[in-house]
Amino acid sequence: YYMRNFDxxxxxxxxxxxxxxxxxxxxxxxxxxxxxxKDLKKAMEYVNKALALDPVNSTALQLKKNMxxxx
Length: 71
Prior knowledge:
mainly alpha
């Protein structure tokens, strides 16, 4: 996602979630992709999924903190 190819990155993380649906890191990274694509509603859905799997996932917690004012 650093190269801003968000569509390809989205596909890769969705595949990772399909392979390992209990990986909170994959959900947090999907949230980052959707935030970058300006889809904050979907980003927050993935943040919440990540936190449901791992309540101390630092990436998800930071994204939630940063997105909360915009929702």
